Amino acid sequence: MALGVIAIIVALGVYLNLDRVHEAEMPILLLAHEFNPIVGFFMAIGLLMMIYSTAATSLYTFLVRFFAPNTNAYRGAVVVACLLGLGFGFIGFVDLVNTVYPLLGYIGFIVIVSLIINIVRRPKQKVV
Q1: How far apart (Å, rounded) are the C-alpha atoms in residues 70 and 82?
Q2: 3-state DSSP helix/strand/coil percent for the chain, to nearest 5?
């Protein structure tokens, strides 16, 4: 319940300040900084912690599918993936989201079409 109330407050805050936040990359961070620079600072730290914790868990789950943990190949893959992630970090949040979201949408569409084709081509099994 508390998260729902917080979400409503955040949405109302952004909605009521659209004239100031419509071009901001992170509108809630702008509002927090305008409210109080100290609040904005802690909000930025919190957002960074959320981003890094998400990135770390995503990196781990992705690499574990291809490499056994605690092996040299895994360690090398972690270094390469971290360097790639660092490089992508310099692209900019909005540009990265504007590129990745549509790309994931197209990939999802291809997966759905592939599944439908697989279902249609599969011979029907007789239920006994």
Answers
A1: 16
A2: 80, 0, 20
pLDDT score, position 127: 64
* Mean pLDDT computed over 80-95: 84
Half-sphere exposure of 110 (CA within 13 A, CB side): 6
Task: Look at residues 49, 12, 16, 17 and name the one whose alpha carbon lies nearest to residue 30.
Answer: 17
What's the whole-number average pLDDT of the chain?
88
Calculated CA dihedral for residues 47, 100, 54, 69, nearest 10 degrees: -150
Q: pTM higher than 0.85, yes or no? A: no
Contacts of 62 (CB under 8 A, 6+ apart): 81
Q: Count CB-CB contacts under 10 A for residue 58.
A: 12
66 contacts: CB under 8 Å, gap ≥ 6? 77
